[in-house]
Amino acid sequence: MKVLVTVMPKAGVLDPQGKAIGHALAGLGFGGLGEVRAGKVIELELAETDPARARQAAEEMARRLLANTVIESFRVEVL
Amino acid sequence: MKVLVTVMPKAGVLDPQGKAIGHALAGLGFGGLGEVRAGKVIELELAETDPARARQAAEEMARRLLANTVIESFRVEVL
């Protein structure tokens, strides 16, 4: 069962990578750009076949390793 | 209009970050883990209000800056 964990900086947390991307896009001539935020996505292939338990496992992985919950929030999608 | 661009390594491209995450998760005792792949997600706030044009702009940004299309694929979601 495939699970996607998306990790983003929390609102209010400085995101220098997102700022750099925004500046680079503006430099390339892209207009009408507001805030840009950069996060990461981790695609996990789990042996678990129950969607609820796969979600639970992925949330536990996110809390323990994938996200720094002090400054990042995460969401889990079971595909 | 908010747009999410998700960039992942293409199938068959070595993904050392994903491998490292997989090893770390196994080391923490998580079992039943198959392939782990790591990518990035960029959240863009665009002034554009037409969903089709917002998607087009984001795809152009992905091709020109956000993704290295030789080794990465991307997908765009208009929220």
Summarize the helices and strands and which ones pair or pack:
Two copies of one chain form a homodimer.
Chain A: E1 2-9, H1 16-27, E2 33-46, H2 51-66, E3 72-78
Antiparallel strand pairs in A: 1-2, 1-3
Q: Top keywords for this entry?
A:
3-stranded antiparallel sheet; 79 residues; alpha+beta; Mth169, Chain: A; elongated; homodimer
Describe the structure.
The structure is a homodimer of 79-residue chains. Chain A is 35% helix and 37% strand. The model of chain A has no long low-confidence stretch (mean pLDDT 96). The first copy, chain A, has a 3-stranded antiparallel beta sheet with strand order 2-1-3. Chain A has 79 residues and is of the alpha+beta class. The first copy, chain A, has a single domain, classed as Phosphoribosylformylglycinamidine synthase subunit PurS (Mth169, Chain: A). Chains A and B meet through helix 1, strand 2 and helix 2 of A and helix 1, strand 2 and helix 2 of B. Strand 2 of chain A pairs antiparallel with strand 2 (33-46) of chain B, so a sheet runs across the interface.
